[in-house]
């Protein structure tokens, strides 16, 4: 969550991560999950970030029409990518949230929800297996854990939170160098993650 502090005032970014939107899509408990092609297709992080995101899907996922609507073909496909996992954290919503990075430096995330929260998921067995493996290997917590492991990662495509630039802080009369704006992305990620095979 991006914030800026100026003169004792906290300024929130106008667009914040919305944990409660598109929950059924995130957990593959939606009716359309029955139409997901479970045969993995290979792609790259760069390829995911070039996928076409609907222009009317709000960056914070709040658009009513998309709460139970799966976006084909990205969200009806299981994707397989090779990347380096650089960080893992247990988020407040129960997800294991992992940052992954390609050899070229492109980044996205993989999220693995708590199987206990999605007992009707089409991919429940895969979630249970992957969560158990990640728990045993990393013991994720609310404290970000740095990782440096290459892996082959499989998961269902998902258009998630779309980061936007944080507004400049309030004027204080002090000249400071400009902060580089965080680039926008299409929010493409793998969620839920289904399998990870680490390089030996």
What's the short version?
The chain is mainly beta. The chain has one domain: Beta Barrel (OB fold (Dihydrolipoamide Acetyltransferase, E2P)), CATH 2.40.50.
What labels describe this entry?
200 residues; mainly beta; OB fold (Dihydrolipoamide Acetyltransferase, E2P); 33% strand; globular
Written overview of the protein:
This protein is mostly beta strands and 200 residues long. The chain has a single domain, classed as Beta Barrel (OB fold (Dihydrolipoamide Acetyltransferase, E2P)). Helices cover 12% and strands 33% of the residues. The chain has three helices and eight strands, in the order E-E-H-E-H-E-E-E-H-E-E. It has helices spanning 23-26, 45-48, 124-138, and strands at 3-6, 9-12, 37-42, 77-90, 96-101, 107-112, 145-159, 188-198. Strands 3, 4, 5, 6, 7 and 8 form a six-stranded mixed β-sheet that branches. The chain has a two-stranded antiparallel sheet with strand order 1-2. A hairpin with a 5-residue loop joins strand 5 and strand 6 (107-112). It starts with a strand and ends with a strand. The model is unreliable at 1-15, 165-172 and 175-183 (pLDDT under 50).
CATH topology heading? OB fold (Dihydrolipoamide Acetyltransferase, E2P)
CATH superfamily: Nucleic acid-binding proteins
CATH class: Mainly Beta
Instruction: Give the overall shape.
Output: globular
Annotated CATH architecture: Beta Barrel
Q: What Rg is obtained from the alpha carbons, in whole angstroms?
A: 18 Å
Estimate nothing, just give the exact number of structural domains. 1
Percent range of helical residues: 10-25%
Structural class by SSE content: mainly beta
Instruction: Please trace the helix and strand order, writing H or E for each element.
Output: EEHEHEEEHEE
Number of helical segments? 3
> Low-confidence segments, ≥5 residues, pLDDT <50?
1-15, 165-172, 175-183
Percent range for β-strand residues:
25-35%
Largest sheet: 6 strands, mixed
């Amino acid at each position: 969550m991006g914030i800026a502090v100026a003169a004792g005032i906290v300024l929130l970014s106008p667009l914040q991560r919305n944990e409660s939107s598109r929950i059924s899509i995130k957990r593959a408990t939606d009716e359309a999950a029955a139409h997901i092609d479970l045969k993995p297709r290979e792609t790259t992080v760069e390829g995911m970030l070039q996928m076409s995101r609907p222009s009317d899907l709000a960056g914070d996922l709040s658009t009513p029409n998309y709460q139970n609507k799966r976006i084909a073909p990205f969200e009806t496909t299981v994707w397989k990518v090779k990347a380096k996992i650089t960080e893992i954290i247990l988020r407040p919503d129960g997800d294991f949230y992992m940052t992954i990075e390609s050899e070229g430096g492109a980044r996205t995330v993989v999220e693995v929800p708590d199987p206990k929260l999605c007992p009707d998921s089409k991919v429940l067995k895969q979630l249970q297996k992957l969560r158990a493996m990640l728990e045993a290997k990393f013991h994720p917590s609310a404290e970000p854990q740095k990782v440096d492991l290459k892996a082959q990662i499989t998961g269902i495509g998902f258009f998630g939170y779309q980061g936007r630039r944080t507004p400049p802080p309030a004027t204080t009369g002090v000249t400071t160098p400009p902060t580089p704006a965080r680039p926008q992305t299409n929010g493409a990620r793998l969620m839920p993650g289904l399998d990870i095979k680490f390089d030996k």
